[in-house]
């Protein structure tokens, strides 16, 4: 298996329900009833640390392999290593060269989309992310619609960070609800996946991540327990989310 199948820009962090094996705790559902669980009601986010020395060594190896073999797979993986080192402009040059040589590769379009977003060019990022989805609609577990909505929001001149960046609706009452009848389990999976990728590159505070975390807390309140939701709301607050609705729900 070529390394291009092993490496990915989607380096994830872990969303961990802290639990003690064999220790059970009563937590609370949104309707006020109790549920017995091994979790203590806290969800913690652990961004994956990037080891610069590892990625520098890996980038050197991959560049040598590319020069030795002229393999586009090695060159693409070299571009990923550059991203992990924070050398975004060099990585962009790599992927633009690949696109010119072999157009319409999914990983090229996806990585260029992320690179342009990191470079603050949301319009170019949106072009490449939309292209990557056309090439592979099931990429990122089908969650890239979230990435598209984030980029569209960034391009909107009239931003309202107290409304959902993702255009989701969980009501305006004290208890979050599901008036649009979303598949909450699927939505939770998609939002978790996108948060996992984003938090590795974006530290607090950040208004978009904060907004996504608030949406995620509204889902968790309905899918898990209020204690779990509260821990997510607190994380949204740490990333900079404010407002009366957050305070009421917490």
Please summarize what this structure is.
By secondary structure, the protein is mainly alpha-helical.
Describe the structure.
The protein is mainly alpha-helical and 250 residues long. Helix content is 54%, strand content 9%. It is built from 10 helices and 4 strands, in the order E-E-E-E-H-H-H-H-H-H-H-H-H-H. The chain has helices at residues 52-69, 72-84, 88-101, 106-118, 122-135, 144-155, 184-199, 207-223, 226-238, 244-249; strands at residues 14-19, 25-28, 34-37, 39-46. The strands form 2 sheets. Strands 1-4 form a two-stranded antiparallel sheet. The chain has a two-stranded antiparallel ribbon with strand order 2-3. The longest helix is centred in the N-terminal third of the chain and has 18 residues, at 52-69. The N and C termini lie far apart (48 Å). The model is unreliable at 1-21 (pLDDT under 50).
């Amino acid at each position: 298996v070529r390394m291009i199948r092993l490496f990915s820009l989607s380096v994830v962090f872990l969303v961990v329900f802290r639990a003690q094996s064999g220790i059970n705790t009563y937590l609370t559902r949104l309707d006020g009833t109790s549920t017995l669980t091994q979790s203590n009601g806290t969800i913690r986010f652990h961004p994956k640390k990037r080891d610069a020395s590892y990625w520098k060594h890996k980038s050197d190896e991959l560049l040598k392999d590319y020069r030795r073999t002229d393999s586009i797979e090695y060159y693409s993986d070299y571009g990923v290593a550059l991203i992990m080192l924070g050398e975004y402009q060099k990585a962009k040059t790599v992927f633009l060269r690949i696109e010119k040589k072999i157009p319409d590769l999914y990983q090229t379009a996806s990585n260029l989309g992320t690179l342009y977003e990191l470079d603050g060019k949301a319009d170019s990022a949106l072009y490449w992310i939309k292209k990557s989805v056309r090439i592979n609609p099931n990429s990122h577990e089908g969650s890239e619609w979230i990435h598209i909505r984030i980029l569209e929001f960034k391009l909107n001149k009239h931003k309202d960070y107290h409304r959902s960046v993702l255009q989701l609706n969980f009501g305006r009452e004290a208890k979050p609800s599901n008036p649009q009848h979303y598949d909450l389990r699927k939505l939770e999976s998609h939002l978790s996946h996108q948060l996992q990728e984003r938090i590795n590159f974006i530290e607090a505070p950040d208004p978009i991540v904060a907004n996504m975390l608030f949406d995620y807390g509204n889902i968790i309140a309905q899918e898990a327990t209020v204690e779990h939701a509260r821990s997510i709301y607190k994380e949204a607050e740490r990333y900079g989310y404010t407002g009366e609705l957050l305070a009421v729900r917490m």
